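P.,

For your records, the input lines for the assembly:
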Amino acid sequence: MNGQYASLLIALPLLGAFFVPLIKGLGKKAIKTYVLIITAIQTGIAAWVFQQVYSTGKPIIVMAGGWRPPIGINLYIGHFAALFVLIVAIASFLMAVFNFKAIDVEPIDKYAMLFLLLMLGATGMIATGDIFNLFVFMEITSITAYALTAYNKTGEAAEASLKYMILGGIGSSFFLIGVALIYGATGTLNMAQIAQLAGNIDPTVAQVGLALIVFGLAVEAELFPLNAWAPDAYQAAPHPITAMFSAFVVKAGLYAMARILYLMSSVGTWHNVLKLLVVMATLTVVVAEFSALRQRNVKRMIAYSSISQVGLIALAFALGTQAGVDAGVFQMINHAIIKALLFLGVGYVAVQLGGADIENFHGLGRKMPVTAFGITVGAMAAVGIPLFNIFWSKLRIILATVEAGYTWAAFLVLAASVVEAVYYFRLIHAIWFEGEGERISESIPLVAIVVALVILVVAIGIYPNYLWSVSQKAGSDIFNVAQYIKNVPLMGVGA
Amino acid sequence: MNELMIMLFAPLVAGFIAWALDVRGIREAVGVLGTLVPLGVLAKYYSTIAGSNPEVVTQTITVGGFKLIFQLNTISWYFATIASLIGVAMAFGMVSTSRSSYEWLFALMSYTGVLGVFLSGDFVGFFLFWELMTFASFMMVLKRSRHESLKYFVLSVIGAYAMLIAIGILYAKIGALDFGTIRQALYMDAMLGSISKSLTALVFLLFLTAFGVKAGAVPLHVWAPGAYSEVDQSYTAFFSGALSKAGAYGFLLLYILMGAKLVAALGIWHNHMVFSYIIAWLGAITVVVAGFLAVLQEDIRKLFAYSSVSQVGYILLGLGIGTPLGFTGALFHVLSHAVFKGLFWLVVAALVLRTGKTRFEDFGGLAEKMPITFAMSLIAVLSLAGIPPMAGFASKWLIYEAAISAHMPLVAGAIFLGSALAFAYVVRFLYAVWFGQRPSDLEDVKEAPLPLLIGMAILAIPNIVFGVAPGLVTEYLGKFLGNPVGGNYYKLVTPTGTYNALLVAVLLVFGLAIAGLIFIYGAKTRRIPVTNTYQSGNPVTEDYNLSMRRNFYRPLAEALDFWLKYSWDRFYERLAGIAEDFADFLREGFYNGNVQSYAWYLAVVLLILALWGVL
Amino acid sequence: MFDWKLALEAIGMVIYATFMGFIFMGIERKAMARIQRRIGPPIYQPIIDTLKLLGKKESVSHGLIYDFGPVFALGASITALLFIPIANFQLFSSNADLIVVAYLLEVPMLGIMLGAMSSGNPYSALGVQRGLLTMVAMQLPYGLALIALIQHWGTFKLSNIVALQQVHGWSITVPALLLAFIVFDIVFQALLGLEPFDIVSAPAEISMGPMVEYGGKHAALLFTQHAVQLFAETAFFAVLFLGGASNLLELLVKQIAVLFIAIFVASIYPRFTIDQAAKFFWKWPTIIGIIAVLLTM
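C-alpha cells returned:
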C-alpha cells in the first residue's frame, strides 16, 4: 500500500468531526458509538502505519498536494510519530469506550466533535514536519482543550477553562513570536530545513527564538512555573478528557518541544537552553509532588502526579544525550499507559460514587474490586516498583541524568519520588484497609480495559525488551537530527 | 543453567499461585513448596560451590537493554542458603499463623527479592531486587499499620534512591554496571585516582545510607521496631532474619567493590582504614543504643525488634574491623543471628497466635502450658545471650577476637556492654512470659500447632549444630577469606586465641553430671504451686498477681533518664511534619487558584529569559 | 583415647576448689565479723551449713526449671573452673581463652536466675532484675579492663598470659595495667556480690533476692556453686593480674590476698542503689578503663 494513505490519520478525525452534526438526531448512544467507530478505525490505520514504519525502518513522508518540502507542507511519520500516533489513537479509543459511562451532560454532539478534534490536534502536532503547521495543530489542540475543560458546565469548570485559556493563549503567542524569529532568520518553516540551517543563524537570535518557543510550549507541556492551570483543568474536565490530557495532549507539547530543541542543536548557545530546561523540569517534579502530598481530591492528586511525571520526561529530554531521550520516550509510553489506567479508574469511581474525594475511596477494595485493583497497580507502577513498567524508565532516566552530570537534579527528583510514594501508598491503604462497603457491579467493558491495561503494565514490567527497543528507535528519531534531515526529500535546497 | 532462574522465581510464582487460587490448604502447600525449591537447588550446588574445585555458576539475561547477571559463588551461596533456611521456617510458621493469601504473596515475593539481591552480579539486578524486597515487605506491614509501614517505606526508599544515585555516579564514571568491571575499574582507579576524593566519599556516604537503612544502623533504625511488630510474626522471622541481612551483604559488597578505592581516597588513620572504622563505629553505636532500647521495651515484639537492630550492629561492627577474622566473625554472626532471631520470632508468633497478647504485663507462667515452645525459646535465649556452646557464642567470640586483635578496644568495649544488655533483655523475656504467676485468662492456652513447631525445629537445630561444630562454618568462610581461623570442626584457633566448642560442651555435661548427682542423691522433692512462696508472712492469693512484669527495668530507665529525653523517632516524626507543612506551603503558595498570579509567573519567567538573553 | 590423668586432675581440682571455696566463704564471714568486732562463726561453718542442708529430709520445688537452675549453675561453675589454669595444673586452659572463660564465669548467673524466676517469688524477681542491671552496669569497665590486659600481653590465652607474666613481671607492675587492675578490682566486688554492690542479694531489703525461695538440697547446691565460683573467680583474678602461680600454695596466698581486699572494701562501704551503681560504673571505672585501654593500644 502507498504510504500516502497515512494522511488518513489527519483526514479521518477531521472529517469525522465534521459529520457529527449529521447524526445529531440519532440520540446520545449513536453519537458515542460513532466516536467509538471513528477512533477504532483511526487505531487500525495507526497500527498499520506503525507496522509499516517499524518493519521497513524508514519514515513515511506525506506531502500535501504533492508539493515537495520545503515548499509544501509535509507530514513526517518516523519512528517516534508512528509510535505516538498509535498511542494517541489507542488512548482515544479506550476513552471513547469510557464515554458511554462517563459523559451524560448535553450537548453530546459538540462533545463528540471536540473529542475527535482533540485527537486530531495531538496527532497532527506529532506528525507534522512544518513548524507553522505545528502551531496550527497546537492551536486546534489547545482550543478544543479549553472548550472541553469547560464542558461540565460547572462554575469550577468555567473558571479552570478560563485560566487555561489565558495562560495557553499567552503561551501560544510567544510560541508564534519564536517561530517568527526563526523564520526571519532562516527563511523557512520546514523543520528539516530549519535544522539544516540552524548552525548558521546568529546565536543570539537563535537563542531568543528557541527560548520563546520553549516558553510557549512549556505552557502546553506543563512545566513549572507555567503549569498552574493544569491541576484545575485536570480536575474540572470530564474524566475521559482528563485521561487524554495526561496520556497524550501534554505529550504532544513535550514532543514538540523536544523536537524543536534537537533540531536546533547545532546552535552555539543550545546548552544554555538545556540548562534552563533542566532547572524548570526538576522544579516541576519537586513542586508537583509536594503539592500532591496532602491533596484530598484523588483526581487532583493524580493530576499533580501526572505533572511531576511529565516534568521527569522533560528532564530526560533536556539532558541532551541519546540515553536521556531514549529514556524520556520510554517514560512517555509508560506514563501514557499508567495515567490512562489511573484516570480511567478514578474517573469511573467518581462517576459511580459521586466524586473523587478520598472519602469515596475508603473501602473501595470491597465496593469495586477490579477498579480498585487497577488503581492500585497504577499507583504502584507510578511509584516505580519493580515488576511494573515505570521502574525501568525511571531507572533509565536517573542513570542518564547522573551520567549527564546533573547529580543534583537526580537528588531532587528522587526526593520528590519519596513524597510520591507516600501519597500513593496512603491511597492504597485507604482503598484496601480502611472503611467498609457493599459490592457494586462494575461495567464489563471498563473492567476489560482496566484488566488489559494492568496486564500491559505488568507485561512491560517483566519483559521491557520490546518496548525498550521501540523507544530507542523512537528516541534516535528525535535525537539523530542528521538522519531526520536526510529522510526529508528537500527539493534541492541547501545540501 | 536455568536452575538459577527457577530458584529465583519459584517463590514468586508460588506466591502468585497461592494468591490467585486462595484455597485453604492448597495455598499453604504451594507456599511451602515454593520456599523449598531454592533450598533444594542450593543444596544441589553445594558440591560445585564448596568442592575442592569451586566454580561460579553464572546466568545472564537481558532485560530492557540491561544485562542482568546472576551468579552463585561462595559468598552468595552462603547468604542465599541462610535466607532459604529462614524462608522455609517462615513458610512453616505461616501455615499456622497466616490466613491471608495477600500475606503469602508478598512474603514469597520478598523471598524472591532477597535471593535476587544475593545472587545479582550487577547493579541493575541488585537494585531491582532490592526494591522488590523492600516493596514486598512494605506491603506486609501496610496491611497492619499505615503509619509504621510508611515510616519503613520512606526510609527504605530514601536508602534505595541513595543507592541509585551512587550507582549512577559509578556508571557515569566507569560506564559499566556489572560488579566485575566496576571492581576492576575501581581497583585500578585506587592507584590512578581519576575519581576525586570528594566524589568517592559521596558514593561511600550514599551506599552507607542505603545499606545502613536496611541493616537498621542507628540512626536509621527507627523503622525497625514498628515494621517488625506490625506484620505476621512468622514473617518477621524472615524479615529480621534474612531481609536485614541484605544490608549486611551490601556492606560486604562495598568492601569487595570499592575497598581499595575507599582506602586510597579516605586514607588510613592509626592503622585503621577510615571508611572501615566508620562502619565499625556505626555498628558499635547501634549495638549499644539499640541494646539499651531493647532492655526498656514493654512489648515483646518491640523488644525483639530492637534486639534485631542491636544484633545486626554486631555484624556491621565485625565487617568494620576489616580483617579476615572480622569478616569471618561478621559472616558467622549473619548465620547465627538469622537462626536464633528467626527462632525467637517464631516463638513470638506462637505466643501471639495462642494468646493474642503482645505486652509483657499480660503474660506469665506459660512454661507449663507450652513446654516445647518454651524449650525452643530457651535454646534461642542461650544462643542470643552468647552462652557457650551455642552458635551465638561462636560468632560473637570471633568478633571479640577480631576487634581486640585489630586494636579497636573501644569498639570491643561496646560489644561487652551490648552482650550484657542482650543478657538482660532475654532474661526479662524469659521471666515475663514463661515464669511466675499465670494470669487467669491464660489458663486454657494450648501448645503451638505442629507446623509452627516444625518451623522452630528447623531453626533450633542449626543453633546447636553450628554451636558445637563452629568449624563447619569457619571452614566454609575460610574458602574466600583466606582461612583466618584454623582448627577443626569443633575447635576454632585464631593466631591469638582458641575456643574448643566440643570440649566446652563435654565439660558442661560433666559439670551438670556432678551437680545432677548431688541433686538426685539429695532428699526427695515435694512440688508446691507458684503462689506458695515466702512473702514475709503475707498470704498470696490467686487474684493478686505478684509477678513483676511491667517496668521491669525501671531503675535503668532512671539511670538513663538524661539520654532517654532524646529520641530519633521523634526527630524523624518532626522532620516528616515539617515536610508535610512545606508541601502545604508550596501548594497553597504556588497553585493558589488566582489566575493573576499565574500570569505573573509567566511574566517572571519571561523576565528571567530576557535578562539571561541579554547577559 | 581417654586421658585418665587429666580426668583425675580435673576431678581432684573440683574437689579441692569446692573445699577451698567453702573455706574462703568461712574466711569472709570470720574476717567480716572481726572487723565489726564480733567473734564470728568458725571458718568451717559454711561446710557444716551445706551438709546440714543436704541432710534435710525433704525439699520443696516449684517445678522442673526450679530444679534445673541450681544444677545448671553448679555445672557451669565447674566448667568455668576447669578452663582456668590453676597453679601448675593447666587442666583444659589451652583449649579456651580469656573471652571464653569470662563468659563461662557469667553462665552460672543464668542458672541461678532461671531457678529464681521460676519460683514466682517477687523478691527473687527483684533480685534477678538487680543482678542483670548490675551486670549491665559493670560490663563496660570489666570489658575494658580485660581488653587492656589482652592488648598488653598480645594474647587471649590464659596460659600464655601467665607465662608472659612469669617472664616480664606481674601485670600490675605495668602502669597501664595497674589502672586496669583498679578497674577490675572495683568490678570484682560486683562479681562476688559484695558491698558496695551486693545489690543482688541485699539481705536486709529483698531477703537474699534470687536465693529467697531455695531451701534443702537446692540451697546446698547453690552454696556449693558459690564456693566453686568464689574459688574460680579469685583464681581468675590472680591469674590475670598477680602473675598466676607455680604451685597451689602460692596461688592460695594470692587468692586470699585478693579476697581480703574484697572483704576490706566490702566492710567499709555501704550499699549503692542500683541506679547509683550504674551511674558510678559508667563514670570513673569506665574512664579509667578507657585510659588503660588507650595506653596499651
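Two observations worth noting. Residues 4-35 of chain C form the longest helix (32 residues). Residues 4-295 of chain C form one domain.

Regards
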